[in-house]
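Morning!

As promised:
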Amino acid sequence: MNRRDFLKVAGSGALIASTSTTSPSAQARGNLEVSSEAVGMLYDSTLCIGCRACVYKCKEVNDMPAVERDGEVQWDQAEELSGDTLNIIKAYKHGSAETKNSAEDGFAFIKRNCMHCVDAGCVSVCPVSAMIKDPKTGIVSHDPDACIGCRYCVGACPYNVPKYEFDDAFGQIQKCQLCNQKGVERLDKGMNPGCVEVCPTGANIYGTREELLQEAKRRLALKPGEDYTYPLERISSTYGHVKAAPDYTQHVFGEHEGGGTQVMVIAGMEHTKLGLPDLPDRSYASVSETVQHTIYGGMLAPAGVLAGLLYFARRNTSDENSGDDNEGGES
Amino acid sequence: MSHHQPIGGRLLTLPFLFLSALALIAIYILIERFTTGLGAVTALNDGFPWGIWVVYDIVVGTAFACGGYVLALTVYIANKGKYHPLVRPALLASLFGYSLGGLGAVIDMGRYWNFYQMFNPGQMNFNSVMLEVGLCVSAYSLVLMIEFLPVIFEKFRAHEWKARLEKVLFIFIAIGVLLPTMHQSSLGSLLIAMGGKVHPLWQSAHLMPVLALTTAILMGFCIVIFEGSMAAVGLRQPSETHMHRGLIKVISGLVLAYLVVRLGDLLMRGVLGYAFDGSLQGNMFLLETTLFVLPLAILTNKGWNRQGRFLLIAAVSLLLAGALYRFNAFLIGFDPGDGYIYFPSVKEILVTIGVVAIEILGYLFFVRLFPVMPKHAVHGTAQA
């Protein structure tokens, strides 16, 4: 192949690639939209007293062993999410750790579990659709019967949520499925997620993402010290307690982060102090899928390149076949 | 009748036995992995889902196995027939590199018994870069086997079969060029979805596939030079330096193009400053870049680039550069947060060494017994 031929092939490949990018199937994909019926949780760090009843209940619902420390089980001592711990309360401490919700010389709690992202990285990257986002509720669940255990979901989760059971010869991926997985189905039965049901202060409430977001914004608008009735379990609940509003940091974590999440957090300090990452508003999944579909949209570009390759491979091998030796080439 | 011949010689040499021992150690550790789980033998953890089995055996290993790909591109697509004698040995090395990369994937897979789900159309997720890599690598391994079949037919004198296959071989050659172009670029795209976990010096987002593909092609050319030099020294084959010299232009051009895109990307994103912040990542970036730039100096020096040993030094430097680029992007520059760290365990490293040993063993077996290497009398006369 001479240079001009090569440029022709390269040019036609580039042309096909560029036309395929303008076809509707391969347009730059933005963030996925949130479903109108999406459900989630709102965690208000300022209300959390760190009792870890939610950690205990989560293990009970999901039938997972408690973490031992010093040879005994004391309530639950899990320090990090794992294949045995799908929900955890972590503490922030600074200096003398005297004042709740204060970044300086204060302390605070943070609940970590699956954020049920609106545009979930784990769902986007799973080669075998073992991570599934419910089109209505938006709950991200997992199907171990399809999972090949490549653990791409682990790497692609900005919150390090999916966990593979490395200590098991036949381990599987574990993650919070909002207590609605097969065999549990608490939401379908009209119940609340386990961690919500047992929260004594209403620090963690369940509802639709829309109503939770409104509630979060209502709370952020409160004047510090103003009385507010905090509901337990759900916003519409008749149970609640009146408490003076804290000095909220004006930020609903999860409203926009990485395309938004269905589990959202409000607190009395910056989210990074509580170990939540800084994320751009555009989801990484949308960037990844845009690149992938730009190259492979409709398989037009690969097909075009293959056609060129077939032409040259045929022409350049037939020279050999016509000779007295079918291995020769022009050496 | 053929331009290739088995090089013969004793198979059970001392190096052969040593490599076999390394392979046996790996197999022993793998028994433990399959009976007690990945955690028992690897240092993988909840923050680092991928270790050296993925990054070396698959990501780096298949890039090292790009010799067959780049020579098919050179000989059959660009019609540079003079490189034909290099094709078979490169094809053999690619075949082993890819098959063992595939084996590495299965070893690392946490639920390997579900592997077939990748080929189940009902489960396929076409948004996933991993699906594309998995399907492409599997398909290419098959194509490599078919491309290598003429060698087997020749050995067993199945001339009719060989003639029949060679009539349609161009189809497999074309597919065999397309597939690596696809998955070698996608191996880079794997990291796009990891977003902020990948250090800014390596998170090139849209340019990931371009950088991965360019370096893979570079590594393909360099592995041809490396393997040719090793065969000349270790297996007393005639020197191929005269042919390797022809590759200088394309290699230099590729390095230059790569550096322009790579550094241009860092400048555009305004993150080049991290290179000089004295951190481990910054220093590894400087080392990686040096390994890319150094060969350029050697290859463009008229006095040096005529000598085989300088060519070899340049090739090895570029192989290390391409490998380090991958290690940096996937592991050294990967920070999942929450304090997770990863350093491969001894057992993990021994398995990877064992896999490399199996590759070399397979290579030796085939070149000694099968017509892989070019016949000296025909192609080597000028130099022999």
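The longest helix of chain A spans residues 300-322.

Hope this helps with the figure draft.
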